[in-house]
Amino acid sequence: MNSDAAHPRSNLPKAWPFEEAAKVAERLGASGRGEALFETGYGPSGLPHIGTFGEVARTTWVRRAFTRLTGLPSRLLAFSDDMDGLRKVPDNVPNREALAGHLGKPLTAIPDPFGTHESFGAHNNARLRAFLDAFGFEYEFASATDYYRSGRFDAALLRMAERHEAVRGVILPTLGPERRATYSPFLPIHPRTGIVMQVPMEEVRPADDLLVWRDPDGGERHGTRITGGHCKAQWKADWALRWFALGVDYEMSGKDLIDSVKLSSQVCRILGGEPPVGFTYELFLDEGGQKISKSKGNGLTIEEWLRYAPPESLAQFMYPAPQRAKRLFFDVIPRAVDDYGANLERLRADPDPANPAWHIHNGAAPDTAPSPVPFSLLLNLVAVLGSDDPEHLLGYVRRYAPEATGADPARDPLPALCRYAVNYYKDFIEPRKRRRAPTPAEAEGLRALMAALRERAGDLEALPPDDRARAIQDVVYDAGRREPFLDVGKEGRPGVSRAWFNALYQVLLGQPEGPRFGSFVALYGIPGTVGLIETALAREAA
Fold first, then answer.
1. pLDDT category, 198, cuts 50, 70, 90?
2. β-bridge partners, 213
3. Given CA atoms 314, 519, 395, 505 in this order, what sign does their dihedral have?
4. Which of 7, 52, 149, 394 is at a distance of 20 to 30 A from 510, taking alpha carbons?
């Protein structure tokens, strides 16, 4: 065990996963236990989504920080609530009519509408595991059905039965009058229909392992065993039961579950356990600042993100400030890709735990070559080329950076970035691209820029790529030092206003903003840029 484990907040890296890990270390120090259990929960009535990725990734980062901080072993349990009753038929499944006849039954007792697994719950569990495996997460999978039926929860269920009224006393004040009249933390499975019943208990007899309840339809009285998977716990009580039975040390949850966390923590204590260290993350917002909702369809799916960017960029988006709301829409993707690339290069130079890439790659940079150009620049290049061929885009980059051969796809990210850039261009840039004619003042500046590029082309193209980009940027500035683009700085030196660069982006590239223009010209080439200017000036003449 590391010496810092006894004082986990000493010399703590300035990174939120380490701050969370220190809390877990303190919890274990107080309990005397030598292994930490991290948990993430999953409702398998639907498919894994971008929030699933975020929760597992963030929990993984805390778990890794815990290992670095303490040297103690830990486990990550991905727990599927697959014994829940099916409340409604999902829209995105085949054979929906057949599923409608199984409403209310546990997901693992319903036939798989896809015909690939023994149950609908098993199908979605397999999708979850494939999803987590695809991203390389280290975890143990747990099925609620297996845990209930195998007896893993039996002792905890009997404890809950012993303290049935105390548990009800916590939950009842949060319910409306109608629901309060029927509430019990136990949901018995109907012996004939197999439906998860939500009925009041006439008797709870832990010594006899028995729940007594009455069928609301016919009034028939039933006796159901508490143990062995014959009943399950209601949602908030179920969460508490799991924490108590398994000894969960850490679990994250969204802001929408704050009240559920409080109630479940109270129930956990009533059972005799200590609720885990919790972490509340903010929810995602759409472009307009509205909460993302699957029913509204105003979100961004993980499949969509991965069409336009590598998975590491999604991790980069998830890492910073998880307790601050993030707008999750397509425009954030290019920034996330470039932020990840920049942080990866920082990691190669300095293994600093404050760097998001340190957590994404568990402290060691992968053996991959850096991209010679940022993703935002690739997007601007493909926008000018108007090509849907990644090889065409890659050819331009090779001319700028001959070392970017793409011969080893496992090490060279550039070919994949070119594919992402083409996809993003076709779906988002091309439909909105509108080149406007230059104003007379803008045309004058463009003519000066074109003349300077032609005059200095030989000298500029002889420079190494980075020096060439900087020298061309100076030429761009010089061409813009004229009215109405002059901007006198604090020291009285004539500078260039943003309006000059806005004109370059709008007139030459057909978009409201863009990259450092010198870098773009260095990549696209001086002859090509001169051609863009000539075309723009022809629009002015027309």
1. very high
2. 201, 222
3. positive
4. 394
Q: What is the mean pLDDT of the chain?
A: 90
- Based on the fold, state whether residues 332 and 264 are members of the same structural domain: no
Q: Is residue 160 part of a domain?
A: yes
Query: Token digits for 243?
Result: 């924490």
Q: Which of 433, 332, 344, 328 is nearest to 380 (CA)?
A: 433
Q: Which long-range contacts (CB under 8 A, 24 or more apart) does 257-262 make?
A: 259/174, 260/235, 260/236
For residues 331 and 287, is the Cβ–Cβ distance under 8 A?
A: yes
Q: Report the distance separating Cα 440 and Cα 263, nearest Å.
A: 68
Same domain (yes/no): 307, 241: no
In a domain, 153, yes or no: yes
Residues in the chain: 542
**Per-residue b or e along 36-46, where b marks 16 or more CB atoms closer than 10 Å to that residue's CB:** bbbbbbbebbe
**Which sign does the torsion angle of CA 246, 248, 254, 258 carry?**
positive
The band of 388, judged by pLDDT with boundaries at 50, 70 and 90, is: confident
- Minimal CA–CA distance to 436: which of 536, 309, 337, 304? 536
Residues 280 and 373 in one domain: no
Place of tokens 């039926």: 149
What pLDDT does residue 3 have?
Answer: 46
- 244 and 310 assigned to the same domain: no
The tens digit of pLDDT for each residue in 490-500 reads 666 678 899 99
pLDDT, residue 457, reads: 93
- Which is it for strands 74-80 and 140-143: parallel, antiparallel or unpaired? parallel
Phi/psi of residue 510, nearest 5 degrees: 75, 30
- How many other C-beta atoms are found inside a 10 Å radius of the C-beta of residue 315? 23
pLDDT tens digits along 19-31: 999 999 999 998 8
* Residue 467, domain extent: 440-541
User: Tens digits of per-residue pLDDT, 217-265?
Assistant: 778 999 999 999 999 999 999 999 999 999 999 999 999 999 999 999 9
Question: In sequence order, what are the beta bridge partners of 280?
Answer: 253
Final residue belonging to a domain, choices 432, 454, 487: 432
Residue set of the binding site for ATP: 294
Domain identity same for 249 and 374: no
Give the DSSP letter of residue 47. -
471 and 373 assigned to the same domain: no
- Could you give the CA distance from residue 169 to residue 259 in angstroms, rounded to a whole number? 16
Q: What is the C-alpha to C-alpha distance for residues 360 and 411, in angstroms, rounded to an integer?
A: 17
Instruction: Name residues whose C-beta falls within 8 Å of residue 430's C-beta, 6 or more positions apart in sequence.
Output: 383, 386
Lowest mean pLDDT, pick from 97-101, 271-275, 332-336: 97-101
Confidence bin at 89 (pLDDT 50/70/90): confident
Contacts of 542 (CB under 8 A, 6+ apart): 437
**What is the rounded radius of gyration, in angstroms, for the C-alpha atoms of the chain?**
30
Residue ranges of the binding site: 294
Statement: residue 161 has pLDDT above 50: yes
CA-based torsion, 388, 391, 394, 398: positive or negative: negative
Q: 459 with 320, same domain?
A: no
